[in-house]
Amino acid sequence: MVAKAAGRPSPPPLFNRLPVLRAERGLSRQDLAAAVGVNYQTIGYLERGEYHPSLDLALRLGEYFGLPIEAIFSRTPFTPLSEQVYGGPA
């Protein structure tokens, strides 16, 4: 989990596309966790933004999905796919 050290500000939020990527591939949290070598709860913490991945874990996820880590994780919210494809909200 993202812990706040005494006297230090919380790290900025880290947004991710893990739920979408899992759904596209029909993966459970357990499936993805086994594939990248972590506990399934870690995937849940990542998806909820309660945990920032190590660089190693981010790279393993990128390799697993065949994507650069910037396509999976971002400091700013991702634009919904419907807006990217169709140019805006319905």
Written overview of the protein:
This protein is mostly helical. The protein has 6 helices and 2 strands; from the N terminus they run βαααααβα. The chain has helices at 18-25, 29-36, 40-47, 55-65, 69-72, 81-86, and strands spanning 15-16, 73-74. α2 crosses α3 (40-47).
**Largest sheet features:** 2 strands, antiparallel
Number of strands: 2
Q: Strand order, main sheet: write it out.
A: 1-2
Instruction: Briefly note the structural class of the backbone.
Output: mainly alpha
Instruction: Report the β-strand fraction as a percent range.
Output: under 5%
* Overall spatial form: globular
Helix content: 40-55%
Gap from first CA to last CA = 36 Å
- The overall pLDDT, averaged over residues, is 90
Number of helices: 6
Layout: helices, strands, pairs:
Layout: E1 15-16, H1 18-25, H2 29-36, H3 40-47, H4 55-65, H5 69-72, E2 73-74, H6 81-86
Antiparallel strand pairs: 1-2
Helix pairs in contact: 2-3
List keywords for this structure.
single chain, 90 residues, mainly alpha, two-stranded antiparallel sheet, 6 helices, 2 strands, 4% strand, globular
Describe, in short, the structure shown.
With 90 residues, this protein is mainly alpha-helical.
